[in-house]
Structures are given as C-alpha cells and as structure tokens.
Structure prediction request, 459 residues.
Amino acid sequence: MIPASFEYVAPTSVADALAALAEHGDDAKILAGGQSLLPVLRMRLNAPEWVIDLGRIDGLRGIRDAGDHLAIGAMTTHHDVGRDPLVHEHALLISKAITHLADAQVRHRGTFGGALAHADPAGDLGAPACALQASFVLQGPGGTRTVPAAEFFVDLFETAISDDEILTEIQVPKHDGWGASYEKFVRVAHQWPIVAVAATVRMEGDTIAEARVGLTNMGSTPVRAEEAEEALAGCPATEEGVAEAAALAAEGTDPPSDLNGDADYRRHLAGVLTRRAVLAAAGRNGTTAPV
Amino acid sequence: MTRISLTVDGQQVTDDVEPRTLLVQYLREQLGKTGTVIGCDTSNCGACTVHLDGTSVKSCNVLAVQADGSEVTTVEGLAGEDGTLHPVQEAFRECHGLQCGFCTPGMIMQTVDLLAENPDPSEEAIRLGLEGNLCRCTGYHNIVRAVQHAAGAGSDTERSGQDTGVTA
Prediction:
C-alpha cells in the first residue's frame, strides 16, 4: 500500500516549520519519525495535501540536564532516549517503558515527541509521562507555552497542540532514586498493550513514601491512578499492603471493550499489573534492574 | 517530484522520486534491489529491514525522501565483493535458519544490527532483538541458533537436535 500523493517539505528550523504550518494549515500533517503516521497514510486513513518533515531540524534532538528536570528534544528517537544515562538516572520509568515499546527497528526510527503527540491511549509513553508529571513545550506563531501532562492528553488521538503549533520538547521532572517498573500485558510480541501500568515509587526504608502510577489503554487518554497513589503513600512495601492499594487502580477509569478484552477484564488487569509494577518498582521482586 | 541523493550498498545514487514513495519501493522498483522484500505492508513483519545510517529500520515505514543524504545497506550489500558471505549470512546457511526463506533478508539485517549492539546476546536477548521480525513458517528455533552461531555462542546454548529440528 502506498500513500495518496502529497507535497513534501523538510524545513531545517522550527521557525521555517511553523511558517510551513501557517501556510498549509488544515491541509498539512507533521511528520516526526513516521512510525505511526506512515502506516496511517499507507492505509489511506488520512490523506494530507502537505507533509512537513521535522527530521532535518537538528535542534529538536537530544537530551539535556536542565537542573530540576530533563529536557528531551521531541525528535529524539526512542532508541536514544532509552539508552541515555541521564534518563536512566533521573527518570528511570521512561527507560523501563521504552524497553517494552514496539521493536528495535521502530525504536530506531520513532521519536519520543512524535509518539506522545500521536496520543494513542495504547501508546507506551503516555502513562510514564503522566506518572512523572512531564510538561510539554509547544511552539507556535505567538511564542512558546508549556502544558502539563494532565492537560496535554485531551481525547483519543487528540492533544492540546493547536493546529499552528509544534511540540518541541518534553520536560521531565527529576525523580532521582525513585524505583520504577512498566508492566505491559500483551497478546503477541511487539504490539500495543491490552493494558499496561507505569509505576514509580520513592521508598523510605521498607515503606513506600510516594507512588505515581500511570495507566495505558484504560480510557481515551493515558491517566493517573490517583486513588491507588493515595493509598500507596505510607504503605508498607509488602505483597498484602500493595495488593490492597493496587485494587483501587481502575477507580474512575472508563476502559474500552474490544476483541482483546472487555472493560471489566481491563479493570482487573489494571489492579493486577499495578500490584506487580509497584512491587517491582519498590524492589520487592528483583526485577527493577534495567532490562 | 523531489530529487534525492543517497548511498545504497556503497554506490552513490541520485533520483527524482514522488514524496510518497516508500524506501522499500524505491529500492526494489527504481534500483532493482529486490533482495529486500515486502512482507506485510503494515510495518509489522520486518521482512523489509535495511540499515539506514547504520541502524536497522523497516523500509516500508520510511519515505525515500527521508533517506536523502543517508547511507542505506540492504541484504545485497552484506557480502564481500568476491561473493564471500557475511558471517551472519554464513550462519543462517550453516544452521538452516530459514524454511521458506521469505523473512530471511530481514532476519539477517536485524541480526547484524543486534550483534553490532550486543556481540554476545543471551537467547532471550536474541528473541527480544528479533521481536520485530516475523517468520510465518515459525522457524524460530533455527533462526535463534543461527544468531548464536554467528555470535560464536552456538555450542553453549544449543538444545538437543530433537528440540530444534526443522519440521518443514
């Protein structure tokens, strides 16, 4: 399958990309790594008149230590983010999630910002971004604004990015010393999760002092399991204690039903996977070492 | 049409392509490099895997225009000029790491990438590293053996012949 014809432009600066976006507006799609967009174009689910390729803008790649947070360039590949020592040190949850994302070839090509802007609720990066309370830097004709994760994901494949804006950077607050785990339940290799749970915890001795839990594919957007997070704070890191708190993971969610599982099954999975993810993040089952 | 210049299997090429042309389509139809095959057309199967600037990609999921200025290596560029097979090709032949052979170009290209990153992978690392390559004959046992053989680890981790025997 081959995409419908389109015009192609590959600007070398964000300013030029914004100008192209302003000119072609509704008729344009932004191309990042293309690992989600190209299948969509090939299957002709979308047929933009213009494709604006951000791949030639060097400034959108790379990871930098910005004091209290990491600044991840939107066009940095999953492969590069996943192997980055800064990410491993300050945002372990992202390193963990990326080992489960798609396959090696897709990770070489797909980008951190592209996947987040695509906003597939079954994508593997939304839940970690929510759990780590990442912020999204959007550049538009009027300047730059920063949107918190809780406001970035609006609906299925829909984000707070306006038609005239580009996601340029993701800011991830440092979580030094926090344990992390991404538990993904999937039917076949390298596919989207039926449900996945991103958990990161700060331990004080044998007690979970703070926990952040993000849920993948439990609604039209990635969400935080806030009731479970509250119950986990101050909870002893034991199987029983964590299981009780994790049972609250699906509270307030509205998961989809499809061929892979109905909503009730997903709620069940969310509890089980939250228990596993939190225990692993707390170092209770020996799986917190980098994969 | 957009003009692109790139290096494919060591040769500099310049062509005009429609922006919608997929890299795999360009390689096969414009350059005649039919060693790279199209399997699923949905970016799942990995049969079309090539190296783009040194790392593996699915060439059905890259536009030819995105490869402008890049270096592409296909399965046809692995062997030496005198026809000497690449060690990974040799290992797939030695271990019969194929049944129908359709997935083989992608399996070989992904294996070269995997071993470049991890020269001594465990069986689990091999299976995870080849996660994006599907063998519809399900001939995975011998494919894994071929990768182990190429890595020089075959004898340590091989199972008995009965377990890994080819059934096709």
In short: Residues 153-168 of chain B have pLDDT under 50 and may be disordered. Chain B is about 35% helix and 15% strand. The beta strands of chain B are 2-8, 11-17, 49-52, 55-58, 71-73. The longest strand of chain B covers residues 2-8.
